[in-house]
Amino acid sequence: MKKIFKSISYILIFSWSFVSCDGYLDPEIMSELTIDEVTSEYNYVRGQVASIYDDIKSGFLPISGAMLASASDEAEHTLGTNSIQNFNRGSWNQFQNPDNVWNDYFQSIRKINRFLVSSDNVNLDYLKDNPDQQEVYKTYMGNINRWKYEVRFLRAYFYFELIKRYGGVPIITELYSLNDSFENIPRNSLADCIKFVTDECDAVTSVLPANYDAADLGRVTKVAALALKSRILLYAASELYNNASWAGGFPNPELITLNGDRQKRWKDAANAAKEAIDLAESNGYYLSSNYSSVFGNNTHTNKEVILFRREGTSNSFEKANISIGFDLGNSGTTPTQNLVDAYEMTDGSKFDWNNLEHATNPYANRDPRLYMTIVTNNSFFKGRTMETWYGGQDGLPIAHATRTGYYLKKYVNADLNLVTNQTSTHSWVIFRLAELYLNYAEALNEAEPGNSDIKMYVDKVRKRTSVNLPELPIGLSQLQMRERIYNERRVELAFEDHRLWDARRWMLASSDFSVPARGVQITNIAENQFDYNVVNIESRTFLPKMNFYPIPQNEIYINKALIQNPLW
Q1: How far is CA 222 from CA 234, 261, 462, in A?
Q2: For residue 34, what pLDDT is reported?
Q3: Within a 13 Å sphere around the CA of 211, how many CA atoms are in the beta-carbon half?
């Protein structure tokens, strides 16, 4: 823990950690500044807030160029040596974790705590005392006050990211000095951590605006705060957070499970989701008619998107994931047959390989989200027909071609010319309205089975114009509705960093992530005629202890009060 909080000097922290497009935190400049200057000058303080926002992680290429989807049954990464494969082999632990974010998030939390302590030090007397600058003074004061609540939200969000990985973690809201000892800071209970996040969401909701002008898009809103509250309360009510039977008699269950009335937790989750939905819709958020547009060049202005992380202009995601059959493509994160089979037929029935009509033409008459998420054989992509069949220009035995028979389409800008190094902006979706609808439906199905809102809000997602699937049948049992909601989340939120955590919180990961990753072997038997055979492409391992990440062992060496998660 010491390395989370201690640094050689504040100057080093500021000069190395902060990045700002405005140039206010240029390392060469920062190395010459005193702490008083950094914390009292408005533009430097604004740069600190920008730096904290920059700590939000996107899910585009977080693990050595791989998406976290490749650590679940959503995808397989084509590069066998990529560190993401350690998840699938079961060869990760407290000494080596490809997704080791513990230190990153605690460093960000320390930056926020420092900002909250120092933000009142900003010197605006030169404006306050100038009659001609009163409007500027009011604007600056308003911004500083709002920034405090923005970063408090970000601290709560970073804590949520830690909680979903580790369970209860140390809650630290004060700024420790360089002389403090960090060798005896225990983990807070899971209940304490969840309450901290929800309380912070409530606190910032009372201050933050519901919308911003175009110049400030991407900043935290009160809608985002309620979306985070909805998500963490849904997790809190889920099976993993209420059942420690898998943990082998772990002597500290309060770190990984909750006590008390679980049914009330479902009601709280449903109420939080509905509150977020109502606030969003009353402030101009709505489901996009075009599913694909949510993940395109204009994600940041899409009215379904509640919070996003906007990346700079690049083509790295395209180079990483476009088929090896295109110049500079590397195949990367390739969807599995496990996921493809989850997409329904257009009549709402399940796809079935034992149905000859389905098996002969497996991509005909499917849920349109399949075509907007995944590149399939013989589909049109980047100006030509895709050939993922054996011997085709996108298929095996070409080195690094997809082994699943599929390529990723969601978030990929197919219009970029990689040869000429054409680039575009990319925005990673963190919260969007469709998730809130599904959060509400899931929680309400557990709290009040049969409530008409359950079906209505799932149908809203299914009936958007570009998808237009049939409404769910009337009269589904609670179990049947649960299964439909689970599947709806799987396809609607594919490749948005939900499946990895949904399967865990439902306690389905031990089964779903332990079966082999499947692909399809395609033979070209005649022009536009293919034979499809499902094949296992990779054996996978998921043990019960993997429901939560292990605390990094080096942190336990430093902080003796940290208790390791069960079975690690």
Answers
A1: 18, 28, 27
A2: 67
A3: 13
